[in-house]
């Protein structure tokens, strides 16, 4: 008699309640392994992107502060040649604009973000969209002159665990830049689960324009 056959005989000899308890423990173990292998890496990537966002905000804020300081020096220096100073400042402003543009280059626009997320969802064909909504925008930095806003969007999806992981992977592989803010996963009725996703991008207008 093989080891598997021995286990089967022992399992069949258990009461119905004991069999359900063993099956439930097995499901919990499988779910824990899935969360560790798929959700945890996605969460770590979200943390990395959040750190990148903070670095971008710091860089833009520093550039804007430098620009403001130069403008103040221009006002306070009565002996400078005004024409030369203005010309130099214009060049500096152009360089500053180029630096800021490099910081945000490649980020998906708020107008494209929601439609792109829906497009990826339709391609999967296995998840159902529970809700989608735009969240209030916020300044990227405390410096109002920086002129860039965060535009968040929230989606709630329902489906099997593997389908949710596949959708998150497809989003991660998109050739555009955006930030992860939140991934909240919970089992609704096994094997059906629900995930709340929040991502956001940058825009030069406070008003969010959905796709």
Automatic annotation (TrEMBL):
<feature type="transmembrane region" description="Helical">
    <location>
        <begin position="20"/>
        <end position="39"/>
    </location>
</feature>
<keyword id="KW-0472">Membrane</keyword>
<keyword id="KW-0812">Transmembrane</keyword>
<keyword id="KW-1133">Transmembrane helix</keyword>
<protein>
    <recommendedName>
        <fullName>MSHA biogenesis protein MshJ</fullName>
    </recommendedName>
</protein>
């Amino acid at each position: 008699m093989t080891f598997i056959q021995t286990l089967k005989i022992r399992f069949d000899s258990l009461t119905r309640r004991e069999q359900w308890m063993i099956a439930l423990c097995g499901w919990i173990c499988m779910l824990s392994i899935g969360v560790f292998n798929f959700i945890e890496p996605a969460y770590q990537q979200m943390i990395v992107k959040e750190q990148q966002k903070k670095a971008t905000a710091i860089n833009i804020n520093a550039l804007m502060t430098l620009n403001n300081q130069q403008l103040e020096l221009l006002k306070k220096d009565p002996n400078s040649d005004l024409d030369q100073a203005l010309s130099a400042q214009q060049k500096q402003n152009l360089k500053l604009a180029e630096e800021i543009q490099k910081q945000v280059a490649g980020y998906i626009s708020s107008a494209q973000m929601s439609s792109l997320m829906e497009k990826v969802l339709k391609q999967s064909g296995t998840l159902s969209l529970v809700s989608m909504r735009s969240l209030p925008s916020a300044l990227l930095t405390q410096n109002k002159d920086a002129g860039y806003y965060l535009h968040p969007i929230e989606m709630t999806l329902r489906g099997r665990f593997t389908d949710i992981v596949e959708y998150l992977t497809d989003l991660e592989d998109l050739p555009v830049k955006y930030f992860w803010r939140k991934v909240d996963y919970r089992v609704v009725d096994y094997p059906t689960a629900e995930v709340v996703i929040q991502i956001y991008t940058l825009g030069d207008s406070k008003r969010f324009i959905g796709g």
